């Protein structure tokens, strides 16, 4: 198969690495890719939202399967665009329709979907700028802390947890009246704060059948001890000890099944991944949010644990034959540590050469925000730069192996959290 993979992050490097393990892969193109994907596949200088350019490339290179990594092209309707073209109308694509992608593209849409189909989630109300007074009055009636979410896409940074009423009111005004997150906060979902332990469940679906992939816990804040600003993700661990068989069964019965049934009932064309952010409170799951693609950096911890042919999974999703696919999962632990540019998630300097080891024992190095400069050096280009995944029969081994490799990687002002996995280790000790 000739495959086109869209995206440029650590998630896409992990996808490429896993796809290339399949004997069914003939050629793999990554658009636009990064310095890591360039080493194992063929990068293509195409924007992920250049729909016409993507369409032409598919025709020119006789692409058999398109895999969409990030959410932006899905929310903007790439799948619908390709299906509307006569020569790509039946092309297998991993990624939902624009309506399906609205589950991530609009927090209000997803909350209404959950309510409609009986999926457990936090109580909420949605407000726009012309409802600011009603929104402020609503805040006064709620318990603290309270959660404010920009309705649209905000690169993982549009969620605020407000500890005081003053903070909540100020933040709501900034979001609605001052466009704190641009168009993304033209509507704001004000949501009950859910306490408990957070984790993510990943589901592959062809719209009818589904497979539950390994779960993961990620670390969103920049500082150790989960302090500081939210980021796109500073690390991940899989499996998660507090997500035992009984808990996963509850997730399947109460959340996965009604979600997949809801997609069918609402006539939403959905062939792709569903990332379900969950809160585990005393063994009961509630949905925090849906995302319509795999998470990053969770992908870098989840994909290495899939032992069956990953390209077979992707093809099953895209062709509606997922029920026939046999998913096999490794019992081993995977721990991912993300290395970022100094200053991230604020402003940071780019272009520093990265020193990488020639080999990584019991671990794998995934590139995210990297490019190769004119001198042939791999340099930092984004906020999140490198994701290192360590493996082990025990969580401690996976943690130790990840950090052993991280310590061999360096560039000017590089930063990473040293406590990834430590909270889970503390739970088990």
From TrEMBL:
Pathway: Purine metabolism; IMP biosynthesis via de novo pathway; N(1)-(5-phospho-D-ribosyl)glycinamide from 5-phospho-alpha-D-ribose 1-diphosphate: step 2/2. Keywords: ATP-binding, Ligase, Nucleotide-binding, Purine biosynthesis. Gene3D superfamilies: 3.40.50.20, ATP-grasp fold, A domain, ATP-grasp fold, B domain, Phosphoribosylglycinamide synthetase, C-terminal domain. One of its GO terms (molecular function) is ligase activity. Its EC number is 6.3.4.13. It catalyses: 5-phospho-beta-D-ribosylamine + glycine + ATP = N(1)-(5-phospho-beta-D-ribosyl)glycinamide + ADP + phosphate + H(+). SUPFAM superfamilies: Glutathione synthetase ATP-binding domain-like, PreATP-grasp domain, Rudiment single hybrid motif. PROSITE patterns: ATP_GRASP (PS50975). Residues 111-319 form the ATP-grasp domain. Belongs to the GARS family. HAMAP family: GARS. This is Phosphoribosylamine--glycine ligase. It comes from Algoriphagus jejuensis.
